[in-house]
Design a protein that fits this description.
This protein has 358 residues and is mainly alpha-helical. Helix content is 68%, strand content 2%. Helix 4 packs parallel to helix 6. The chain is globular and about 65 Å long.
Length: 358
């Protein structure tokens, strides 16, 4: 008798419940590390710490008018720090940005006054001159292949000498003439240097422009093709060119954006004080660059944000005015800035290493 053996049916057990196993390559990093990877997180925490410190160390800071003054000081730095930050993300920086502000203001003032023109004519010509300076810096960089440090250092020295020499030649003085009684002055002042009331506190219009420009710059960086180009040329311009990024256009346009910022801040200074001192602006370029660095932008390019420099500029304004409100010697201001800058560089280095560590 033949015997047949029937195989038992295979039994499949349901998968065990619990966390899904991964091989490490697809593992999601913790939320804390993902937040640290954002360039603006460190400076935001630093800005909060500085604010809390001065709220206790300098009680006048708690007043609304004092905070409005701090925001105003921050905005005059922050408006220029934004295009400087975009330029740094693109892998370059501009040492002529400080004196370019004064060049723009001098151009508008002297053309309007000496030729008895409507001040808007001077404003428009100053814009063309400022954009031309930025285009020149970018063109020299591309054509010569020199580092932006050398190109813009040369422009810095040229503009510094031209500002002083031309002003003395045209006006016979180191300052321009008062243009407050000229046609178009009141309208230009309303745009560049007016104030408005918020809860009984006077706020400068530059604070609004600062926030508008910051929002626009953030949108450009994160939502447009041009923003991708900025990061690409800052990371590796040769690789960017190989994939079709217009490196020449991007670099030159970034320098022109710095020129636009210099024009805007120059117009604010002109219509705030009605006159311009030709020797001013020296050293301001370092403040703009430092605000961008504190805001998380790297000197090597390819990394940064537009929001970070906003907090960086706020820290500058907070320290600058907080020292005064606290009754300390204002000579310590630059020492504080140096400490903030070195601290920001070290924090950014630590954040980068932590965020990229598995």
């Amino acid at each position: 008798m033949s015997m047949t053996q029937q195989a038992a049916p295979a039994v499949t057990s349901p998968p065990a419940s619990g966390p899904r196993q991964t091989d490490g390559r697809t593992r999601q990093r913790p939320l804390a590390l993902r937040l640290l990877a954002r360039p603006e997180v460190g400076v935001f925490l630093g800005a909060v710490a500085v604010l809390v410190f001065f709220l206790f160390a300098a009680p006048p800071v708690r007043d609304g008018s004092s905070m409005a003054n701090i925001l105003y000081q921050s905005s005059t730095i922050g408006i220029m720090a934004l295009p400087v930050a975009l330029l740094m993300i693109g892998g370059e920086f501009d040492l002529s940005s400080g004196v370019a502000v004064i060049t723009s203001a001098l151009t508008a003032s002297m053309l309007s006054y000496q030729l008895t023109l409507n001040v808007w004519v001077g404003v428009i010509i100053a814009l063309i001159v400022s954009l031309g300076i930025g285009a020149f810096n970018g063109w020299m960089l591309i054509k010569t292949g020199l580092p932006s440090f050398l190109v813009t250092l040369g422009t810095f020295l040229i503009l510094q000498g031209v500002n002083l020499a031309v002003t003395k030649l045209v006006t016979g003085n180191v300052a321009t003439d008062d243009i407050s009684d000229m046609d178009g002055f009141s309208q230009a002042k309303a745009l560049f240097a007016s104030t408005f009331e918020v809860g009984g506190v006077s706020v400068k219009i530059t604070v609004v422009w600062w926030l508008v420009f910051a929002a626009l710059a953030t949108w450009v960086l994160l939502r447009t093709r041009y923003g991708n180009w900025i990061f690409a040329v800052g990371g590796n311009k040769d690789s960017a060119r190989a994939v079709g990024v217009p490196v020449t256009f991007t670099k030159i346009s970034l320098f022109m954006l710095v020129g636009f910022g210099a024009w805007f801040v120059g117009m604010h200074q002109l219509f705030s004080f009605n006159t311009v001192q030709s020797g001013e602006g020296v050293g301001q370029e370092l403040i703009y660059i430092a605000a961008a660095v504190i805001g998380g932008c790297l000197l090597t390019g390819g990394y940064g944000s537009a929001i970070g420099p906003v907090f960086g500029a706020f820290m500058f304004g907070m320290v600058q005015q907080g020292i005064v409100y606290a009754g300390w010697n204002p000579d310590w201001f630059k020492a504080f800035l140096g400490v903030m800058l070195l601290g920001a560089v070290l924090i950014n280095l630590w954040v980068q290493r932590t965020a990229t560590r598995r």
